[in-house]
Write a structure and sequence with these properties.
There is one protein chain. Helices cover 87% and strands 0% of the residues. The protein is mainly α. α1 packs antiparallel against α3 and α2 (39-84) packs antiparallel against α3. The protein has one domain (2-167).
């Protein structure tokens, strides 16, 4: 009888421990869900995307400006050297003008290429952030599924324990009486 009481007490303690563990796990799950859905995470992703775009634009603008200045300096030097030689002035002037036009065209083409590269980089960054967000959602879904499975298993174990302990008349009574017929 003492063994039975001790087993019953151990089973009850185990049930209390499992219930406490379950409540703690639910509280943790709730906190994780709240942090995943927080606007701060979404705003952080947006902020990083914007910072990357701005930084890229500044770098490209500086590079284009340097190239433009270098091309203008080179064109002016050619014009100045062309002016010193009177016999070739017209030819060199036209050549310098054509080179200047070509350089401006190249700068414009470079600017377009840089803008396209920036756009692709921004799209790729956005795709990576969205992929990461989907991975986090999938991880969350898997954790929830694991919690459901664990809860189901715990409920089955609890039902088995109740059945074994004879609570709620879940176990049939066995009679050991000898019949003398």
């Amino acid at each position: 009888m003492v063994k039975f009481a001790m087993r019953q007490q151990e089973a009850e303690l185990k049930l209390i421990e499992e219930e406490t563990e379950k409540r703690v796990e639910q509280a943790i799950q709730k906190k994780v869900q709240e942090s995943l859905n927080a606007e701060e995470i979404k705003l952080g992703v947006q902020r990083r995307l914007e910072e990357g775009r701005k930084r890229l634009l500044v770098e490209v603008a500086a590079q284009l400006e340097k190239e433009k200045e270098a091309a203008l300096v080179e064109a002016k030097q050619r014009e100045a050297s062309a002016i010193k030689i009177p016999s070739q002035i017209t030819f060199i002037y036209e050549q310098a003008r054509r080179e200047k036009i070509e350089l401006e065209r190249m700068l414009e083409e470079n600017r377009r290429k840089v803008e396209e590269a920036q756009r692709r980089e921004a799209l790729e960054q956005q795709r990576r952030e969205e992929e990461r967000y989907r991975e986090l959602e999938e991880l969350q879904r898997q954790k929830e599924e694991a919690m459901r499975m664990k809860k189901k298993q715990e409920e089955e174990e609890r039902a088995n324990q109740i059945k074994l302990l004879g609570k709620n008349k879940a176990r049939p009574k066995v009679s050991f009486a000898l019949s003398l017929k």
